Amino acid sequence: MVVSQLENRLDLYNVLPGTFGTLRKASGLIHDQSAKRAEGFYKTISQSDDLKATPLSEATIASLTKSLQNHWKNLFDGKIDEAFVIQASQIGQAHETHGITPKLYIATYNAITDALIEAIITRHRWNAGQAASIVTSLTSVMLLDIELTLTAYCDASAVKRHNASENAFADQQLDRTMDLSVAINQSAVSNARMMNVIEDVDRKAQSISAAIDQMVSGISHIAENGRAAADNATDAITATRNGQQTVKDAVGSMDDIAHAVSDASGRVDALAEASEKIGEIVASIEAIAAETNLLALNATIEAARAGEAGKGFAVVAGEVKALSQQTARATEEIRSRIVNLQGETQGIVDAMARGNDAVSRGQNVMNDVAREMGDIGTKMEDTTRRIADISTILDEQNKATDAVRDGITGIAGQTGGQVAAIRSAIGVIGQVEGLIETQVSELVQYEIPNRTIRSARAEHAVFFKSVAELLAGLGSSADIHMGDAKACRFGKWYDSPASKPFRHLPSFDAIRAPHLAQHEAGQAAITAFKNRDIVAAEQAFASMETATHEVLQKLDQLANEARNITPLAEAAE
Q1: Residue pair 240/412 in contact by the 8 Å Cβ criterion
Q2: Region 281-290: what's the mean pLDDT?
Q3: Cβ-count burial of 363 within 10 angstroms (0-12 exposed, 13-18 middle, 19+ buried)?
Q4: Rg for the chain (alpha carbons), in Å?
Q5: C-alpha distances in angstroms, 482 versus 456, 486, 490?
Q6: What is the rounded distance in angstroms from the CA atom of residue 410 to the CA atom of residue 185?
Q7: Environment class of residue 465 by beta-carbon count within 10 Å: exposed (0-12), middle (13-18) or buried (19+)?
Q8: 292 or 309, which is more confident?
Q9: Helix-helix angle 311-443:128-150, to 10 degrees
Q10: What are 520-529's contacts with CB under 8 Å, separation 24+?
Q11: Number of neighbours of residue 377 by Cβ within 10 angstroms
Q12: pLDDT tens, 40-68?
């Protein structure tokens, strides 16, 4: 094989320098275990029923194993040159010599490849994009290795077996590739849904954060007003207590006034008694004056009888009479003044009694005021305590809302990071889809039976995924090329003569309705999304999801039912 032919083979199987860099991401499975895998390869072949008649000797197995170990080491290290091609041809010739048929070689190679692919997927299950990339690269180099090895069967029958073997390997790889494509697209749909949900959570978290900021501001304002109200209430309590003390002092002053009034009333009563006694004395004086006047009159009479001898006595009697009359007049004036004094004293007594009553009533009122102000002070103290409690609770609530705000802010930050991560994952999955499409385009070059039916699973899974990404804002309707149910590749085949050998199968008729429903629901979702009718778009997408699950299930059943049917014309597919 000349260099140009080798380069053509490398291009055909898309084996590039980057392919081996991708394989090194799983070097622990591919490179480190290739020697052990070569031992298992020939152990499996030696136990095959095809070699029971001419079993391989231990020496032959050891020689073949050593050659394959070296060969695979060069393969996975990327040392693919003319020496590698010669080595592959020698391995093929050795197989021909020892009766290892291409069928047995391919079956064993597939078993080894399947186990290796399973190990890779398991190892990289948390990174589906990387797993798919490694599997695609591995499949490419394995196909290249098989072709180079099988070229050793150089006669016509060997070439025929070689083509059949390659087709058989491609046949098996197609199913695996379709399964991988469906899984990748289902993962993309899940990511799109997750993206939609997380973006909604992010928007709500931002809204909640803004609302909490407003609430924190309101609580802080209320707490500040509460503290101001508590300070005002404390001042009011102080004023109330001062007023209460003032009232108590006023009550004490009123008590003093009441005592003074009571004392003055007692003194006025004593004055009244003294006035009455003076009146009694005046009455005695009046009586004495009357008697003196009567005596003076009698003395005058007797002096008149005495004549000249009684003139001097008459003068004295006149003087006595005059003095008695003056005394009577003075006594009368004193009596008048005492009567007036008694009237004034009675008025004072009455006024003092009324004042005493007023003071008593004032005392009662002031005592009531003092009690009311005491109650007001107690209630204001209770109100102050309650306001202080409210302020404390609001401070604690403020701290709690700060913690909630920080949590919501953290959630918003995390959702933003998750959105970026999911976008990155979606981008990686898109790259993997491109690799899968490349691999499918390579596989369909082989004579694979019923390839239209089998590849339709991936095509309709991609259609479903594309609509999901459109609704999540991750794609464009211009990127969706699946149209009417009869316009897709499977739809064209379904109504073409190429499908006649399959029309008697149960799944052939069963797939018609869900296939039509998936396309109609998908187009309805796209149209509603273009019209900004999100509710209708989501309803149509839900119908599409149900139809898609049924389409994939029926396609799988149809592919299984059609395995033993030979199509009339593969080209029609």
Answers
A1: no
A2: 78
A3: middle
A4: 63
A5: 12, 10, 11
A6: 31
A7: buried
A8: 292
A9: 10
A10: 520/485, 521/547, 522/463, 522/464, 522/467, 522/480, 522/482, 523/483, 523/484, 525/467, 525/470, 525/471, 526/467, 526/470, 526/477, 526/480, 529/470, 529/471, 529/477
A11: 19
A12: 888 988 888 888 878 888 999 999 999 98
Three state DSSP letters for 456-523: HHHHHHHHHHHHHHHHCCCCCHHHCCCCCCCCCHHHHHHCCHHHHHHCCCHHHHHCHHHHHHHHHHHH
- Name the residue with tokens 């149809």: 558
Calpha distance 146→92 (Å, rounded): 9
pLDDT-above-90 percentage for the chain: 4
Which residues, other chains included, contact 511 with Cβ-Cβ below 8 Å and sequence gap of 6+?
Answer: 551, 554, 555, 558
Tokens at residue 95, please? 């197989």
376 neighbors 242 (Cβ within 8 angstroms):
no
The position carrying tokens 């933003």 is 416
Mean residue pLDDT of the chain comes to: 75
Domains of the chain: 223-407 (1.10.287.950), 449-573 (1.20.120)
Give the per-residue SS3 of 70-116. Answer: HHHHHHHCCCCCHHHHHHHHHHHHHHHHCCCCHHHHHHHHHHHHHHH
Tokens 């990511």: give the residue: 191
Q: What is the DSSP letter of 57?
A: P
Please report which confidence band the pLDDT of residue 569 belongs to, taking 50, 70 and 90 as the band edges. very low
Please name the residue that has the structure tokens 């009563």: 269
**Residue 299 is which amino acid?**
A
Given CA atoms 15, 21, 26, 27 in this order, what sign does their dihedral have?
A: positive
Query: Can you give the pTM of this predicted structure?
Result: 0.40
Give the CA distances from residue 499 to residues 28, 267, 456, 559, in Å, rounded to whole numbers and listed in that order.
Answer: 46, 140, 14, 12
Structure confidence at residue 515 as a pLDDT band (50, 70, 90): very high
Q: Closest by alpha carbon to 46, among 30, 33, 59, 31?
A: 59
Least confident of 120-124, 208-212, 360-364, 460-464: 208-212
The pLDDT value given to residue 171 = 59
**Cα distance between residue 109 and residue 103, in whole Å:** 10
Residue with tokens 């003044």: 337
Q: The tokens 């007049």 sit on which residue?
A: 329
Q: pLDDT digits over 469-483, tens only?
A: 788 777 777 777 677
